[in-house]
Amino acid sequence: MEISKVGIVGAGQMGNGIAHVFAVAGYDVLMHDIAQENLDKALALIEHNLGRQVERGKLTEADKDAALARISTTTTLSEIGPSDLIIESATERESVKTAIFEDLVPHLTPDTILTSNTSSISITRLASRTDRPERFMGFHFMNPVPVMQLVELIRGIATDEPTYKTLEAVVEKLGKTSASSEDFPAFIVNRILMPMINEAVYTLYEGVGSVSSIDASMKLGANHPMGPLELADFIGLDTCLAIMNVLHDGLADTKYRPCPLLTKYVEAGWLGRKTQRGFYDYRGETPVPTR
Ligand code: NAD
User: Fold this and answer.
1) How remote is the CA of residue 120 from the centroid of ligand 1, in Å?
2) Does the pTM exceed 0.70?
3) pLDDT tens track for 188-235
4) Judgement on whether residues 169 and 106 belong to the same structural domain of the protein
């Protein structure tokens, strides 16, 4: 199926990055969020990030202007309905996502493909709440979207082959690489990554190391480009906790229990970079460890 109009629901860290790469690849993008303020912030960030790509010689000024001109915004969810492809990228909470899909269904065209950028929630279960489980897929981008090469494609139990092939072709047009994952909790990347981040939080909680020593150990000792706590702040601690809960509930194995210290940070509203405080405090010039 030919895709030209793309609707994005949720204009947070991921939604704005997804809008950015689709607009650069020539798609018309309509971005939705619950508040105009969030959409304005997302547009400003996209403009800033496109500007950085121009400075690095990756795009021309004309490419940047054309990409920006392809993005429009709305706070009315039903306007997203008539898109060829919809990417839901709202908060990682199943009740939020289910409500969005249920509200969207009456406004879709018969051919609209529905996808979710969820990091962990069952695609089969989300799809079952819509009128088109065969045209529903997991479409999992990595953060930051303009930089990261991988997109995980997750088939629900009912996803048909034309839908899979269409998304595979879209990933190629974006200049990215897809990897196929079966629909089990947290798919591939987060099934492996999140328990490592959670273990880093346990290492902090049990006093084995400080924030700085844990991150330095994994950067210098395991050659990771970012330490696990720095990475957790980058992803968002609420998202990390939500994914651990999905692993814990979905696989019913105590090895996935979220660290109580991670829960405490989330309860404090210290969600990482997006709230300026997490395992590091970002309010000054350089990040300062909070433990
Ligand atoms: P975020 O908190 O930055 O953004 C979420 C956005 O959704 C906010 O702007 C919020 O206003 C909006 N929203 C909430 N309820 C809504 C509704 N009913 N309708 C429309 N918009 C609504 O979160 P994020 O990091 O962008 O995560 C979004 C999704 O992407 C989640 O499913 C997450 O698991 C997934 N994801 C995140 C990462 C990451 O590294 N952060 C990576 C891959 C996938």
Assistant:
1) 13
2) yes
3) 999 999 999 999 999 999 999 999 999 999 999 999 999 999 999 999
4) yes
Structural domain range at position 201: 189-289
Q: How many domains does the chain have?
A: 2
Going from the Cα of 208 to the center of ligand 1, the distance in angstroms, rounded, reads 33
Same domain, 240 and 116: no
CATH number of domain containing 39:
3.40.50.720
The residue among 181, 199, 228 that closes a domain is 181
State the Cα–Cα distance between residues 284 and 79, nearest whole angstrom.
41
Q: Is 140 a catalytic residue?
A: yes
Q: Mark whether 89 and 174 lie in a shared domain.
A: yes
Integer Cα distance of 153 and 241 in angstroms: 22
d(CA 200, CA 281): 18
Mutate to test the pocket of ligand 1, among 41, 239, 266, 274 (most ligand atoms within 8 A of CB): 239
Task: Give the strand pairing for 150-155 and 136-141.
Answer: antiparallel
213 is known as an active-site residue = no
Ligand 1 binding pocket, CB closer than 6 Å? 9-15, 32-34, 38, 89-92, 96, 100, 117-119, 140-143, 235-236, 239, 274
Distance 220 CA to ligand 1 centre (A): 31
- Give the integer Cα–Cα distance in Å for 230 and 226: 6
